[in-house]
Amino acid sequence: MPELNLNSLTLVGLDPNVIDIAADAGGDTFPNDGTTFLYVDNQSGGDLELTFASMRATAAVPGFGSLLSGNVVVDVTAGTTRLIGPFPVTRFNNGAGQVQVTYEGVTTLFVAAVRLVKPKSA
Fold first, then answer.
1. How far apart are CA 77 and CA 37, in angstroms?
2. From the CB of residue 26, how many other CB atoms can be counted at a distance below 10 Å?
3. What is the pLDDT along the chain (122 residues), one digit of tens a residue?
4. pTM of the entire structure?
5. Which helix (H) or strand (E) holds 76?
6. What is the CATH T-level fold of the domain 6-116, as seen in this structure?
7. Domain segments of the chain as ranges
8. In what order do the strands lie in the sheet with 28-31?
């Protein structure tokens, strides 16, 4: 799986031209620090599913105990854009600190990893 470049969204904005990257048929990975989103632009004529791999089989939830923590599947309607995330590090990061995503189809599907940069206090 190729790794997507990480784009930073700051106070001065983000150039929309950097988010026009074709999704890879085998899936993609992207670095994640817990403030990362995946921008998805589905220009195809059909709805598509994206699957984000969970790296943990279970998660401890206070008051509920240990619960199953499976993959997350997101439907992206034809002709729409979505911003998906952020991704909790302990659930989604692989050993290299990346989130893994696969796609139901990639024809005219464009993606970009976007990190929200929190402003420093003035």
1. 18
2. 10
3. 899 988 888 778 777 666 668 999 999 999 999 999 999 999 999 999 999 999 987 777 788 887 777 899 999 999 999 999 999 999 999 999 999 999 998 989 999 999 988 777 66
4. 0.86
5. strand 72-76
6. Hypothetical Protein Tm1070; Chain: A (2.60.290)
7. 6-116
8. 28-31, 98-103, 48-52, 72-76
